[in-house]
Amino acid sequence: MHGLAKNHLKKILSTCSANRDCEYYPCHYNNQSCLWCYCPFYPCEDEVLGEFVKRKDGTLIWSCMKCNWIHKPDIAAEILREITELTLDKTTECSIDYLENRELLMQIKNKIEKKLGKSNAI
Known about the structure:
Distance between the termini: 35 Å
Strand order of the largest sheet: 1-2
Shape: globular
Structural class: mainly alpha
Strand content: 5-15%
Mean pLDDT: 93
Pfam families: zf-like
Order of helices and strands: HEEHHH
Protein name: Cysteine-rich small domain
Low-confidence stretches: none
InterPro entries: Zf-like
Number of domains: 1
């Protein structure tokens, strides 16, 4: 394998599969997909997947510590497929700007939930 291809493959594998080299792995469960280490739907405020917790100062913040949904390989891949399909004709920067639309992101999440389910069980 060509060196550049090998380096690129390493990046893909560490991002899209279970990144066992990460110091926090497994942050949710063993064999999780690490593609969405930082959830594009945060805060989803979906109480099946997460919860509001109190900070030390008494204010509330959304916690997704117990969310397994987005780390399931089939869910993670479907989110990527949906986002890729919606941004095929856009530059990376335009894609990011386009995906800043919270309503659009929640539509993607809901579409995937309808297609693949919303179970948080692993």
